[in-house]
Amino acid sequence: MNVEQALQARRSVRAFLPTPLPAILVQNLLQQAARAASGGNVQPWRVVALTGEPLAQVIATAAQAEGEDGGHYPASLWEPYRTRRFANGEDMYATMGLAREDKAGRLAWFARNAAFFGAPVGVLICMDRRMGLPQWADLGVYLQSLMLLAVEQGLASCPQGFWRRYRSALAPVLGLPEPYEIACGVALGHEDTAAPINRLRTPRAPWQEWGELRGWPV
């Protein structure tokens, strides 16, 4: 598998098989991903991978804690981003037959975020809160590197900004030193190919909407 194939195959999977992952496999993925580009070689990430009882403890803590503002999107999201986000949500719920009026069903599904969608491994990627936008960009490169490496190994993943909602509640559980906090989570494991939610395929905006080539002959 080459990089292009891994990029085309990667998607956010939201239902996993309970099949355990070996520690050496998980460590290799996390370690190799650290070859990601990082401005000034700062490498701002701190990564905690969880399975078994530690994973269950994090899930239980999130279930009992009151979520904070995760700051996922700007207030009053504008076009074309608002429409893209709305369409993604509607497409996702449609795969499970959850109508817009089914508020309880949609909330119950959203709550599965807090269980890493049943994945056997939950990864929490953390960063020193004093860092700025360039270091957040570094974190994004690390995250993409991790997910592409997972694809190469036949694994599925789902990045989850959701876990920022519990950064204060989980800091003592994880034993994070100050001033580190959760930046995002990643559900990691083998895809449950029978789950309806995993039929979702999200589109991408056409090149003409966001890309330009300048200086080349027409």
Record keyword descriptors for this entry.
4-stranded antiparallel beta sheet; alpha+beta; single chain
Chain-averaged pLDDT: 92
Radius of gyration: 18 Å
Shape descriptor: globular
Count of discrete alpha- or pi-helical segments spanning 4 or more residues: 8
Q: In percent, how helical is the residue content?
A: 25-40%
Reported for the largest beta sheet, the result is: 4 strands, antiparallel
Q: Separation of termini? A: 34 Å
Order of helices and strands: HHEHHHEHEHEH
Could you explain the architecture of this structure?
With 218 residues, the chain is an alpha+beta fold. The chain is 39% helix and 13% strand. It has 8 helices and 4 strands, in the order ααβαααβαβαβα. The protein has helices at 3-9, 23-33, 52-64, 81-95, 103-110, 133-152, 167-174, 207-210, and strands at residues 45-50, 121-128, 156-160, 180-189. Strands 1-2-4-3 form a 4-stranded antiparallel beta sheet, with helices on both faces. Helix 1 (3-9) crosses helix 6, helix 2 crosses helix 6 (133-152) and helix 3 (52-64) runs antiparallel to helix 7. The mean pLDDT is 92.
Question: Secondary-structure map with pairings?
Answer:
Layout: H1 3-9, H2 23-33, E1 45-50, H3 52-64, H4 81-95, H5 103-110, E2 121-128, H6 133-152, E3 156-160, H7 167-174, E4 180-189, H8 207-210
Helix pairs in contact: 1-6, 2-6, 3-7
What is the compact description of this entry?
The protein is an alpha+beta fold and 218 residues long. The protein is built from eight helices and four strands.
